[in-house]
Amino acid sequence: MLSNETALPEEDKNESLSNLKELGQIQIPSVSERIYCLPIIGQIEGHQILPAQSKTTKYEHIIPQLLAVEQNPNTEGILVILNTAGGDVEAGLAIAEMLNSLSKPSVSLVLGGGHSIGIPIAVSCTKSFIAPTGTMTVHPIRYTGLVINGHQQFEYLRKMQERINQFIYSHSKITPDKLEKFMFTTGDLAQDIGTILIGQEAVDAGLIQAVGGVKEAFRELNSLIPSRSEEINNNPE
Asked: Which residues are catalytic?
């Protein structure tokens, strides 16, 4: 009788099914892909494993995919599809920083929701879109659990909030005053402080660049790719 370590499910023997199960993708970037699509769905899982019934995107799965996109000379751009409730702050910031530091053009599209730490990810790309019915919840960092040293914990959360705010300021057109106003609004959320922005409202606020869907996102990404190729040709190393 085989042990649990050697008795693998049948789907794990199939590379495509295994990739779909572990990464949410049929395959990682291949030589035939010009544009790579990266979905970020559910909660962003970081250092803590979330309950099995939660739909999650694991940042340790996202990072290798982004590295593969950067290293693959045949992949010329990346489309990031977001429908996330947020999640681990440091994991979300790590993904946002990696997207922003890619040498290849990127476009983000918020479908459904790009809430909480999903906002830095959405604004990290070269161009950002939101669907007309897409939503984004802007709120300050939440903390649950035992607090032992109140002052130190407060300083940690304050610095973490500053990191998030600074990233959003640097990669969108929203002003610091407007972002803080959205974060600390009362009465908009039933059991929390913050603001829900829907479609055009997120664009008017300066968080997202345009309202659009898949068609507009692909059109924009295709227009960005030639401009990058021309830049490389005009500035050879």
From this structure: 116, 139
